[in-house]
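## Example record

The block below lists the input lines for one assembly entry, exactly as stored, with component labels intact.
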Amino acid sequence: MIRLESKGEPSRLFSYLSPVLAMVLTVGTGALLFELMGKPAGPSLYAYFIQPFTTLYGASELGVKATPLILIGLGLSVGFRANVWNIGAEGQLTLGAIAGGALALAFYEVETPLLLPAMMIAGVLGGMAWAAIPAFLRVKFNANEILVSLMLTYVALLLLSYLVHGPLRDPDGFNFPESRLFHDSATMPTLISGTRLHWGAVLAVLAAGAIWLMLSRSMLGFQLKILGDAPRAARFAGYREPKLVWFSLLLSGGLAGLAGALEVSGTVGQLIPTISPGYGFTAIIVAFLGRLHPVGVVIGGLTMALTYIGGETAQIEIGLPAAVTGLFQGVLLFYLLACDVLINYRLRFGRRLAIG
Amino acid sequence: MNDNHNDPSTPLLELRGIRKAFPGVVANDDVSLSIKHSEIHALLGENGAGKSTLVKIIYGVLRPDQGDLLWQGKPVDLAGPSAARDLGIGMVFQHFSLFEALSVAENIELALPSKGEGGFDRAELPDRISEVSAQYGLPLDPRRTVLDLSVGERQRIEIVRCLLQDPKLLIMDEPTSVLTPQEVGRLFETLRRLASEGCAILYISHKLQEIRDLCETATILRGGKVVATCDPRQQSVQSLANMMIGETPLKPERPAGRVLEKSNRLEVRGLSLPAQKAFGTALKDISFSVRGGEVLGLAGVAGNGQPELMTALIGEVLTYPEAVRIDGQPVGRLGPRRRREAGACFVPEERNGHATAPDMPLADNGLLSADRRMGLTRGGWILSRARDRFAGEVIQRFSVKASGIGAAAKSLSGGNLQKFSVGREIAQNPGVLVINQPTWGVDAGSAAAIQEAILALAAEGAAVVVISQDLDELFAIADRIAVMSEGKLSRPKPIGEVTIEEIGLLMGGIQGEKTGATV
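Predicted structure tokens for the full assembly:
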């Protein structure tokens, strides 16, 4: 019989060890799964986890995928600390992509260095606007932001679909649901030539630094942490919950919107019906994998990026289905939540001693 | 009561060498005690002495790591509370678990085993309740809704529920902490009658006078160990206190020659507030004022509007500007931070989660309420050195036992966390201090230190409001006293002009009349 016994105090060691343990278990489960599907585990795991690093292009793709995950994960982790559960980052990303992309198309013929920054700002504002809806409804009517933000994601995806099928469709595009390809002045320059790694990666690292400073040194970050840890103590201190809810949602929405604008200008280069392979949802795992800490989010973002790239490689090399990416992500979150139990509890084997 | 093993020489219940450890603390260490038939046995000790753990072991909630339980001379292994109930052990908890929307009979029915398992027929239950309540002088109408009942009446429900199962041992956990002095008197009569009919009572308390009045034997716990077993009637309050605490005097030193200032530093005028949540208490036209140098005590039974008044004074709930004035400035519409800037500091009742964030280190908890008054931030950034220095000062000045400023608030014992919460506010040298239950659940040594710090602050010219259920405490430190009852406040009277009985009647207030109607 296995029992859980309270440790009394949460273990700091296990709060760092738990993500590592979860990853080891995920790889183990993956190996088992590959074997069951009749694929040799060794080469499959190699294709999934190692092969992407064997070329510069593969390694740079890690940064490409990690950039939106880190940006969004940073914003979400701030909100999660304050008990503000923005689950709709995917929708905010989409709105950011629409806002940034629409700007690029509106100034299609204009060549100016101001266009890219303007697109980024438009992306941020688009994401914020989408996040403002759950913020307003929660503050004003105490509506659950989890449901509101999640459902708005589908609205955003349909809005994008409408736009690329209609008003923003490429006039010379043979009726394909795509916008025109952005001009050079609307395309984010790459960091390394021959790869798709663009300047958005630098923005993500800078954002991580800024969020770290905000959480560890500013009164605002302190208030967010108190609101999440002890809401009554926050009221006692006199922190204004509505203000903090607004801030959390606007920050995470803005960062998701920025990620969306970066995707269309840096990676995709046009508006298409599907801009993100679920970055907004995967970033939720990134935030928890990174222990809601900015540095952890960077590591978590790189890890989850690998599941995307590995999934693609595994499709090509071994002929595994595309669903394997989602499967790995789900299994990882599952193990992470299970391993997190060890932060507060230890396992005891055997029966409890009877007295009397 | 059924009697198969009623040989009076065998103790009803005997504990031998009970030991129970939790991670980080040994709650009970080699505890032995024996309860005779028909005996009222006191279990005396400060908060944290291990009383609750021991009681949970007796009631089958916890299992001891070592040691034996003997019931009527035979070793038993209690697998759970139901096993304890089967033996004939009943327990009345300090905090009742009653459904307020249900009737008395329905609540009792829910707690009893169903008919097939030796319970009662639903139709007979109201009659049985009336029968038992009449027999033991516990007036209770089985048809009334719990919501309408006073705390004393609710306690009777729990007692009657136990009595319906013919207990041989009744455990009472701090039963008087929620009662008026008059209700306490009535409860004692009931308990004595029960004992005279053969039911032993294990009475848990840290109120010494009560134990001297009621109990024949007392087992005194300190730090998880039995330090003495005695007849409390042969002891003085002081000698019992010495055994319980070990050192320190009980009464705080009152600084001599206090001068009251002429002007009111805190003024509350016509404060009314609708109940904030279901079953909360509405505040009705509360008015009082406190001068500099003065301590005003607000007595009252729990649940009569104390937490509501506290949140209105802190500014967690806003009223209209003139309802609260600090040094003449109307602050009724200002939040807590602006009220602190105006000169007031507050210590709410619940120290874990309200006064402090439990998982945060003490340094951050200092920042929680002192950031503005102590200048711990600049331009929105935390000055970490000033923050650490402030928390360190509070720890040192108020002798808070903690591993340092990095210790999480919840790692501190109740008394030490309370010393930190009170110390954090006093260290800000406020002009007005409002404290709710300053020494609730705090060991006597810390309680005396807190009371002295309050008096010292008043001596420096601050106006202090102490909300407390502990009348002894209020009589020890307050200059004037008023009573809260059903959201209303009586007119404050100087401490020299009132008696405990008078206060007790006010505490019963309207509730007393209501109860009277059903007797």
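The first strand of chain B starts at residue 13 and ends at 22. Residues 4-245 of chain B form a domain with the Rossmann fold fold (CATH 3.40.50.300).
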